[in-house]
Fold:
Amino acid sequence: MIAKIVLENFMAHERTELELGPGVNALTGPNNTGKSAIVEGLRCLATNPVPKHYIRHGAKEARVSVELEDGTRIVWIRKKRSSGYELWHPGAEEPEEYWKFGRKPPEDILNALRLDLVELETGDAVDVHVGNQREPVFLLNQPGSNAAAFFAASTESAHLLAMQNVLKRRTQDAKRRERDLEGRLGTVRDEMDVLAPLPDIALAVETGRELEQSSKKLQGEIPVLEKLLEMRGGFESKLTARTDTATILNGVLDPPKLKDVSGIAEVVRQVDWIGKALGKARKTDAALAPVAPPPIIFDTGRMATLCGQLQRVGQVLETAQQKGQVAAGITAPPEPENTTHLSGLIQEMVATRRRHDRMARWGNALQDVAEPPDVVSDVRLGSFLGDMARLSAAMQDAQLRLNGLETELQSLKEGIESRVREIGRCPTCGGNFNADEFLDREHVHDA
Structure:
């Protein structure tokens, strides 16, 4: 059972979510509110029809999803160039996605949704779950052969024939698979004969691998042995040289004891430094011998201050002269007149101009208006208004009676629909009929 329906960017629905209750759910409302779009969404989810204008204007894709009672969620996605499905199992964190599967929905989607078409023996398919808005539901618009095939499929003989056909197909498929398997078995036997010496080859390969590992291990130890031998030869050469040196030194007397000469080394270092400093002083004295002594320096702070003040005064004077030269040819400005009365005059002129424009617009608008008629007598007008009042009252009474009749008609229609659902078939001819057909076109009995 479907517990919830969600439409996202599907036709006129930006996002609509419907939670269905147990039993029969009725969807009512004014025209052009999206009722048929909900039914069309279920049909798209169940059949994946050819591309139409399902995507809402301005959106990139449309989505129709249903949630079943067990928590399974199925989503149909319609993009501009392709369509796909998402299957969310209860408790799953990621969905199973289906794309590029052809026109018919995937088997997993059909098995989970259980709204697929019923295939007849005639080769046609019948939708017993969802119908279009302008077509009768179920088999009322199908040929008689399809109806006969559908009702024949509900008898035991049809089930037996269908089971027999299925068993026949399965037997043929099993025989075909048996022949294929026997052919593959002969091929495998031939391949096994070719591979008979494979165990001996595998044993030889394993032995070769062990020998290869031992060889690699020995090759890794050879450089270590070569290095040890090289070190041994060096030690033997050093031992021979030291033995010869010891033999020679056995006849040499011990050297005399050395005195402490650290004080002498310090004295030598100081004498050396003094000699270098004396040489530099002599060169400096020789270079400064011809230089005369410097003159006596007096305090010039007051002179510097006075020079700065004179410089600033000169700059100010030069600026004043430039301004005087520029202003020499300019005459004195006239004295301003009193313009208070001009301000009031300008405001009055602006107001007059606006009144003139407004009167001109009124004149243009009233050019095409006819003169009102002369009212000779208001007796007929009063009579007409009285008739209008009486007609308005009569219309209100008629509307009230019409509302009562519509309420009574709705009650009778609901009673007829309830009775039709209880009966299910016509008691005269045994044919199928519904309340809409009975009320609008009456029920026509088959001849």
Summary: The chain has a mean pLDDT of 79. Residues 198-249 form the longest helix (52 residues).
